[in-house]
Write a structure and sequence with these properties.
By secondary structure, the protein is α/β, with parallel strands linked by helices. The strands form two sheets. A two-stranded parallel ribbon has the order 1-3. The longest helix has 13 residues.
């Protein structure tokens, strides 16, 4: 929640930028000489939050998660190396840093972030 009292914003690109759905309470708010007074932005996509390009095919992410799930018993380094054969790493090509991608996916998987989002999208 943004609670703004007696705020004056002048001569800037965007006066207020907040996530879509944010509750904004303003009392005495004055915004002048700005390109955009109030911007309500979409949350970052799942791909962007994982550091992947926005146009990453979701089935490639699912493939990578399945590979990690199938190798749960392996040490972390071996689980990451198992991603070499994934369609995600193949699609990313030479720009893919396997260790970075693997660590991000393992962390997101451990926190339940990916499965919860995939369930909402495909469930």
């Amino acid at each position: 929640m943004l609670d703004l009292k007696n705020v004056r914003i002048d001569n800037c690109g965007t006066g207020i930028s907040a996530p879509k759905g944010a509750h904004i309470k303003a009392d005495g708010l004055e915004i002048t000489n700005t390109k955009k007074a109030i911007e309500l932005r979409d949350p970052p996509s799942l791909m962007k939050s994982l550091g992947l390009p926005d146009d990453t095919p979701s089935e490639y992410l699912i493939d990578a998660i399945k590979i990690l799930e199938g190798n749960k018993e392996l040490p972390k380094e071996d689980r990451i190396n198992s991603l070499k054969s994934s369609s995600l790493v193949q699609w990313l090509g030479t720009t893919a840093d396997l260790t970075t991608i693997g660590c991000v996916l393992l962390s997101a998987q451990t926190q339940g972030l990916i499965s919860a989002t995939l369930e909402r999208v495909f469930g």
